Amino acid sequence: MAVIEALDCAVEFGVKRVVLCFDYHTLFQYVSGRWQPKQQKIQTFVDEVNLLRKNFTHCEPSLIAKKDVKLAYKLAREAVSSQITKAMESSKKIETCVICLEDKSMDQFFSVKGCNHEYCCDCMKQHVEAKLRDGMMAKCPHEGCESELKIDGCENILTPKLAEMMKQLLKEASIPVTEKFYCPYPKCSTLMSKAEVHQLTRSIYEIGARICDKCGGTFCVSCRVPWHKNMDCAEYKRRNPNPLVQESKLKNLAAKNLWRQCIKCKHMIELATGCYHMTCRCGYEFCYTCGAEWKNKKATCTCPLWDEENIVDTEESDDDDDFGVQHEVGFLHVYAESSDDDLF
């Protein structure tokens, strides 16, 4: 019956004080003990109710008029709802983020896979974003921890643009420098491995021609340039012994603006702000002034570490999501790829 179900729920939620409301006079008399039931079924019911009443510090029956039943239902619903809310609030564990020192519920925390160090989602998003802007994969911010953050565990705290950047960095790191191949069309520059290149759709022109999956452009696998129609590779190289016009323009522009070329992956980069210790998107570290490699986070040259003009930066970006213009320490602008000698 409804009375027994209600008492069971009250016991489950830890309620200690209960009033049993009856709008049926006979039943009220039975439960209050003023009348003794003659039917076994009713006696069993009364016995069960009295047994449940022992779980409460206060549990007394009350006779109410039928018109007051709706009010009793309302009060009961409010009481049950209040107990449910209290139970849910007490079940929410509060933790303090060691980075921002704010108290937050555990559903607002991010756990790093592998080491299980936990930080709030807001701090982890900023940490991952800062590393991606510097062209590096993020690791657990806990001191001394080397656990790398995985894309499958970070997608729920990253914007689609940041998630795509992370996937690109992972691909860059997974392909050895000697195996990397970039689409030669400047507006594309899609990264592929040599194995992926050979699996691309073959062009109708020649055996060495492939079609880029992303931009649809046809290029020569051997020469690494847009397809030279009606000309074999030997003839193309004979006619083009010097760098392409666009590459010559790039090198002149780089010399004029003091851009540098990574020795390892040959990408052109520019120091926006910060010190001269550069970390390329391929992971190679070097001195921006002379090109000497940094080993174990230490310079192998005697060049100055920074210029005050590059450290102090008062400009602000118009769009925080625009990664083409950044003003963060050590950020690298990637402009183009060149296969020639380093520009130092």
Automatic annotation (TrEMBL):
Could you confirm whether the keyword Transferase appears in this record?
yes
Named cofactor requirement(s) = Zn(2+)
Q: Does the keyword Repeat apply?
A: yes
Pfam families tied to this protein: IBR, IBR_1, RVT_3
- Gene Ontology biological process terms, A to Z: protein ubiquitination
Q: Where is the RING-type domain?
A: 93-307, 97-141
What EC class does the entry list?
A: transferase
Its Enzyme Commission number? 2.3.2.31
**Which InterPro entries does the UniProt record give?**
E3_UB_ligase_RBR, IBR_dom, RNaseH_domain, RNaseH_sf, TRIAD_supradom, Znf_RING, Znf_RING/FYVE/PHD, Znf_RING_CS
Alphabetically sorted, this entry's keywords are: Metal-binding, Repeat, Transferase, Ubl conjugation pathway, Zinc, Zinc-finger
Report a single Gene Ontology molecular function: zinc ion binding
Q: Which reaction does it catalyse?
A: [E2 ubiquitin-conjugating enzyme]-S-ubiquitinyl-L-cysteine + [acceptor protein]-L-lysine = [E2 ubiquitin-conjugating enzyme]-L-cysteine + [acceptor protein]-N(6)-ubiquitinyl-L-lysine
Family note: Belongs to the RBR family. Ariadne subfamily.
Described function: Might act as an E3 ubiquitin-protein ligase, or as part of E3 complex, which accepts ubiquitin from specific E2 ubiquitin-conjugating enzymes and then transfers it to substrates.
Under which name does UniProt file this protein?
Answer: RBR-type E3 ubiquitin transferase
Source lineage: Eukaryota, Viridiplantae, Streptophyta, Embryophyta, Tracheophyta
